[in-house]
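Quick one: sequence plus sulfoquinovose-uridine-C1,5'-diphosphate SMILES, need structure tokens.
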Amino acid sequence: MRMANLVANCGFCLSPAVKTHCSSQSHGHNNVIRFQNSKSSASSLNLRSCSKRSNKLFVTRASSAVQGQTNVTQTPLTGGQQASGQSSSRPKKVMVIGGDGYCGWATALHLSNKGYEVAIVDNLVRRLFDHQLGLDSLTPIASIQNRIRRWKALTGKTIQLFIGDICDFEFLSEAFKSFEPDSAVHFGEQRSAPYSMIDRSRAVYTQHNNVIGTLNVLFAMKEYSEECHLVKLGTMGEYGTPNIDIEEGFLTITHNGRTDTLPYPKQASSFYHLSKVHDSHNIAFTCKAWGIRATDLNQGVVYGVRTDETAMHEELSNRLDYDGVFGTALNRFCVQAAVGHPLTVYGKGGQTRGYLDIRDTVQCVELAIANPAKPGEFRVFNQFTEQFSVNELASLVTAAGAKLGLEVQTKSVPNPRVEAEEHYYNAKHSKLSELGLVPHLLSDSLLDSLLNFAVQYKDRVDTAQIMPSVSWKKMGAKPKTVSV
Ligand SMILES: O=c1ccn([C@@H]2O[C@H](COP(=O)(O)OP(=O)(O)O[C@H]3O[C@H](CS(=O)(=O)O)[C@@H](O)[C@H](O)[C@H]3O)[C@@H](O)[C@H]2O)c(=O)[nH]1
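Reply:
Sure thing.
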């Protein structure tokens, strides 16, 4: 069967999570507010066909906690408690763009729990990628509507939902005008390096979606929320692996007797990582030119799945990717260990990166919001807590697996990427600690719980998705189709 990855299907019909929107009137959702916009600047991938539906703006409020009940009601724009340490009389409003994804969902719940008024903006395209490529999260995940309803039922807290594409400026404008955020946390990007290296159309999609989406956020802030603070998810991968220490965003250089502090050199190694480099340049420029206030969080590789909030109920569960396209190193290794698959160390395994627990992702974003950049300031924080090589991760998982009675083996896989496999790596990461980050370092107990979690859901693992299938060298202009 040929998969739908190159067929111009509407993602908003494909996903069961959004079916109610496509037919909301007929399902009695006549209290959903709709803003019908005209044009779409949708992506160059075949998501364009979604635009006629996706560029409608949906503002929904969960009204009922009953599982399976689909009613939504429009409620006044209030909610949440006073965010701690803030002096204004109303809760601070945070727009979480990409709030249905791995980091975004955990962050949206965390901020809501902390008393911020939260709105999620998402086009649900991450769920569409799974449908197209035949992938699935290890953990079953509820629709975004059911997630938000469950959160309301458990905590009484409301999260607003705007479903649409930030590449559609009219949609984004309406969301900004309606919600009036004090901060915009931007996770709404295609975040997989392998996905961006599948073929030309995925490379173009990734850079269009990420760069234009961020540009639109910057324009929306200038037009409608001048005071809004942008907290943008960048990546440690922007720096590459230079043979000198990596600083936090900037490097002071003396050249021919003159000294300046300049952006740290960028040497990204995938079209995805490069999209974040382009974003950083655009953001830095608009801070200078328009006085935008922005924090670029250069995040390392995230691991883990549970946060205090997502652990409250199975309908709040976060996704956990283990496949060769979206799965990241440590999460993949834990799932591989659970199902008895050899750990897939690419090449020599000396590739060293900064890593952090997802519980620290949410903490870091909260710290950035609570301590905003000044108008015109472009700040860069390196967001990770510890460095590991891939070989070190494999050893840690092997040892943790042995304690649980798992016989874990490691296999060197020909590296599908073009990257240094043995290199110097020493990246600074002190700015978030100075703001108060208390890290959850990778411990035996965390590895135990992640491994146990993987064992719990191991029957859901499709072992055919484990080996890497995307080659940096072999990618080309020819569209890559997926078949089963
Ligand atoms: O089975 C695997 C998977 C990965 N690797 C290696 O592990 C390293 C990290 O790869 P990854 O897939 O865990 O992470 P990466 O592709 O770099 O991207 C992830 O981590 C980035 C942070 S960083 O790596 O750039 O610091 C984020 O920006 C991305 O959104 C997120 O998907 C790479 O050297 C890769 O070759 C293996 O050896 N075996």
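Residues 200-224 form the longest helix (25 residues). Residues 191-193, 235-237, 273, 299-301, 328-329, 332, 344-346, 351, 353-354, 390, 417, 419 surround sulfoquinovose-uridine-C1,5'-diphosphate (CB under 6 Å).
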